[in-house]
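User: Sequence in, structure out. Go.
Assistant: Echoing your sequence, followed by the structure tokens.
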Amino acid sequence: MPAQQPGDHSKMALNNHFQAYGWGAPHYKDAHDGRQHDGSWTSSVIVSGYKFEGSGPSKLKAQNAAAKSALQGLRIPH
């Protein structure tokens, strides 16, 4: 299994922040562009009325990118 990069835990960090405040889990909206096995994903998450987006070669990487954007934009330590 390849080593995980530092940004790979952003979705988990955002989920933990939501749960710590009793907000449940954040909801991600995902979209795929391109062929089924060869394309890119975009993901967005809305936190406190702000929309944060990310993209990547997989849905999980796009969600992690969106979560990282949210954590940075809201200055939530992770």
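User: And one key feature?
Assistant: The chain has a mean pLDDT of 88.
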